[in-house]
Amino acid sequence: MSLSASAVSSRPSRRVRGGPLFLHADEAVGMVRPGDTVAIGGSGGGLVEPDLLLSALGRRYRESGGPGDLTLVHTTGIGDRAGGGMDLLAHPGLARRIIAGNWGMAPRMSTMVINNEFEAYNFPQGVMSQLFREIAGRRPGVLTHVGLGTFCDPRLEGGKLNEVTTEELIEVVEVGGREWLFYPSLDLDVCFIRATVADEKGNLSLEHEAANLEMLSIAQATRNSGGLVVAQVKYVAQAGSLPPRSVEVPGICVDVVVVHPEQQQTVEGAYNPAYSGQFKQALSHLEPFILDQRKVVARRALAEIRDGDVVNLGVGIADGVATVAAEEGWSDLFTLTVEQGLVGGVPARGVIFGVSTNPAAVLDQPYQFDFYDGGGLDITFLGFAQIDRYGNVNVSKFNKRVVGTGGFVNISQNAATVVFCGTFNAGGLQAVPGAGLLDLRADGKHPKFVDEVEQVTFSAEQARLRGQRVLYVTERAVFSLGENGLRLEEVAPGIDLERDVLAHLGDWVEVPADVKPMHPAIFTDAPLGEQWRASYRAGKEQGA
Question: DSSP of 74-118, one letter per residue?
Fold first, then answer.
């Protein structure tokens, strides 16, 4: 890997002249050379994932021992947590270095990071998506405030994830009297991207995909680095038959096309037209959300949204906020978004997070992060693995697991209000809601509130400097970020404050005299209803 330093690449071009080649997957991956830097498009759950190309590259390495010593670059977590995606490349020696926005969808790769089997970096997902645009324009890199005070800051860890990763890639620079982080560009030798249709000239359309991600930016970046652009598609159309406005990647940026007739929209199904905007699904037919501790957290979190808010939802418990809103018929009162570029609709839960039912708009992912980074979000709901006495949050590396930040750093640093959602403890928790109370039958074995987080993915100090409003919502208690750390705000009905909350925490939690009960309606099976919503809204307007 070499850093991009000039406006015009001086490396020999590997472009295919005279139009794209239509090859089998094995032939296409045979063009990857040892030591190449390979950019891979896609997101979790098979979303716009070039799965056939990944499978072919992994098989080639297993059978022939090459190509090895690769540098792999990808923006989001690619996989299904069950052996797909990047885990298809999880073979010793295949990669020398991986720079990724998220690792959580590929557990075998994550284990290899912990075992020091290659150099591993984690950059924020938004930075990664924007970085491809900078590479395409032959600019030196991304200069941004995103990551200051977190593990991406070189004064902490510099985005390095294990002991064999020693090179400092991220720099602190001062411009205009302010500190910024600089993430450098790199030269790309090959990229694997995906679309729905390619015409005979290589023009690509994504009409059946549930997101665009940064397919165009990756293709432009690789092309302008002198690299080889390989596109996986499901269909081939006659030249000139694609409507010009449907072309996401023009043929001038495509060298090789691989046809995969069995290509699925996501790992959960071949095609759902409500995900790609071909029709509007009736929300009354969405899968119901059973009443458990996850739903309690989502219901309490939902109370923080105001009419007209622009909202982001993270993966995990936080994604249940969308389902609860749909159940109550409130989805049209605010706008839900996810970082993969979707605006409006109802974000999906689970392994296909990044997909939305009935989206109103589908943007390229870098532009979604431009909006987020600039303060476009009124409120975000994000998960947590650890929260410490200072209010710092860790979602990226804990308990010998590397998950990665994804869009968490971009989003948590820039939303006006941040609501962290999760269970109080983990591992065997049995917190049963009902009759307006929470029955704690068995507590989790693993504490999530700790003296100090293992890795800082969200900096409480930076949040105070920015004046953000920060809440931490669990099934049994709600906290806010105070001047010195956590402040207890609410406790669930049926919970013993001393035994079930304070006994698990240090004396560093501020406990005011007027701790309020969490609303009993969120612990019942009945719809919350407009009366509940109005009462919460009235309380907020009065500063309660």
Answer: ESS--S-SSS-GGGGG--TTTEEEEEES--TT-HHHHHHHHTTSS
